[in-house]
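Project outcomes to date are best conveyed with an example. Our students and postdoctoral researchers have been running inverse folding experiments weekly, and each run begins with a structure described purely in tokens. The record below, which covers 482 residues, was selected by the lab manager from last quarter's runs and is presented without edits.
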């Protein structure tokens, strides 16, 4: 090693990319030799408590990032010991003088990173942390009174008015690595791949990694973004970007997405905006809002943002919860969504709202039970947005759906899946049922059911509850606590 070349560590977490990665770029610009690392220690933070579907994605995303480093002549090193122990050992063994990382915003992660930063600085080690996953830091956006936002629209207007217009950072063309033997483990030692075979089909739907993220975004901008506003609510159509898992794992940054959308708009010469693009960017805004709420109100992962909901008399019937998880509630649009989730590790956003409302307001199950199931089965499981979404649908969170809004699963199905295409895809036992009855098979005449090969209660379940009765019961409870 040359005397003039110092060494630094780049600690990857939720930034599994090289493009627009401030930590990586700054480390390179420092002139130091890089040691890129990733630590997986289940005792440390929520990031290592990821559900099975997320772990599948993480494995393949890390594999791709490792390949990117290998193409540059380096290696991504994997460790299972506590992060601080790993870094302190590398400092001792390789004369490391600086550590670079991109910030995290979950409560446990903030506590961990703050402690690590203090310990390293006390030891005389430089620490450089960056915003690598948000358009604005949560503490940078506040109301005129200096308070955090709890309503989305003014929050997003504030962010839009102050987004950094700079072009995203390019991926480095050359990286200088510290070339010595480093004692580490292998990616397979993390045992991230699910033991059950239920995730075996995920590869048919997803391509984890930075390249896969940019290919997905390019395809969406070419073929979907202009029609996004009108198509996004119809689950049988390819009307959404499906970028959420790529964003969660930091394979692409929101700044890269916003820049790509703006380039698209400039090419079309629509300087005054375009409904599809504007609506899509607002969805990026909801992601930002989720992190804003989580940062300022960290208790919301366990308790309601609105305290009066903490004493809500949830039913918490284990059998009903299981039926919901299995997609066996007897309401086709609900069951189709839950089966899509199990098969693909993802669910269409409109359907997420429908199944969430059904669990919380028809079955009166605690929203945390839904959040826990999504956490284990979604490839895009994200603490901030999972919490925001479930508290929204339960009526207990920021900018929440009003307590009196109870999604009618029949009307929602008829409106957003009028021909039943989505239902037939995920519930094949209903595939022969005419459109008229596809959303309410229990009302179909006996001869129609027989011709479709359906025996309610046997080949497909009877409704778990009567929606109208469940709605009235829920509203009566919500009215009391209101």
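After processing, the design step wrote out the following sequence:
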């Amino acid at each position: 090693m040359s005397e003039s070349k110092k060494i630094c560590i780049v600690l990857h977490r939720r930034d599994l990319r090289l493009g627009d990665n401030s930590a990586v770029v700054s480390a390179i610009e420092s002139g130091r030799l890089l040691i890129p690392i990733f630590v997986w220690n289940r005792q440390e933070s929520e990031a290592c408590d990821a559900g099975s579907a997320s772990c599948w994605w993480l494995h393949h995303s890390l594999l791709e990032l490792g390949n990117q480093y290998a193409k540059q002549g380096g290696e991504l090193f994997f460790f299972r010991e506590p992060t601080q122990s790993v870094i302190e050992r590398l400092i001792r063994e390789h004369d490391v003088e600086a550590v670079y990382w991109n910030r995290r915003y979950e409560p446990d992660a903030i506590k961990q990173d703050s402690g690590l930063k203090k310990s390293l600085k006390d030891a005389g080690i430089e620490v450089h942390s960056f915003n690598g996953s948000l358009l604005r830091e949560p503490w940078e956006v506040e109301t005129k009174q200096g308070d955090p936002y709890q309503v989305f629209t003014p929050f997003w207007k504030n962010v839009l008015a102050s987004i950094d217009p700079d072009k995203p950072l390019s991926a480095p063309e050359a990286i200088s690595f510290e070339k010595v033997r480093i004692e580490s483990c292998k990616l397979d030692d993390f045992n991230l791949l699910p033991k059950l075979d239920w995730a075996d089909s995920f590869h048919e739907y997803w391509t984890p990694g930075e390249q896969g993220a940019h290919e997905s975004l390019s395809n969406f901008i070419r073929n979907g973004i202009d029609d996004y506003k009108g198509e996004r609510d119809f689950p049988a159509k390819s009307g959404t970007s499906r970028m959420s898992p790529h964003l969660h794992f930091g394979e692409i940054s929101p700044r890269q997405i916003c820049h790509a959308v703006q380039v698209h708009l400039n090419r079309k010469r629509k300087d005054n905006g375009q409904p599809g693009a504007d609506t899509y960017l607002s969805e990026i805004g909801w992601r930002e809002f989720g992190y804003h709420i989580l940062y300022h109100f960290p208790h919301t992962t366990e308790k309601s943002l609105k305290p009066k909901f903490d004493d809500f008399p949830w039913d918490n019937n284990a059998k009903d919860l299981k039926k919901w998880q299995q997609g066996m509630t007897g309401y086709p649009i609900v069951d189709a969504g839950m089966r899509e989730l199990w098969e693909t590790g993802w669910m269409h956003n409109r359907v997420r709202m429908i199944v969430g409302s059904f669990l919380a307001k028809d079955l009166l199950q605690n929203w945390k039970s839904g959040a826990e199931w999504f956490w284990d089965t979604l490839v895009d499981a994200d603490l901030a947005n999972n919490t925001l979404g479930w508290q929204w649908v339960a009526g207990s969170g920021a900018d929440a759906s009003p307590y009196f809004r109870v999604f009618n699963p029949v009307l929602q199905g008829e409106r957003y899946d009028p021909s039943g295409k989505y239902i037939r895809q995920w519930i094949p036992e209903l595939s022969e049922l005419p459109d008229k009855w596809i959303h309410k098979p229990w009302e179909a005449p006996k001869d129609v059911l027989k011709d479709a090969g359906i025996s309610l209660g046997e080949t497909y379940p009877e409704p778990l509850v009567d929606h109208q009765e469940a709605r009235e019961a829920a509203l009566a409870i919500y009215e009391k606590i209101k």
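The chain has a mean pLDDT of 94. The domain at 307-481 is CATH 1.10.579.10 (DNA Cyclobutane Dipyrimidine Photolyase, subunit A; domain 3). The training component of this project remains on track.
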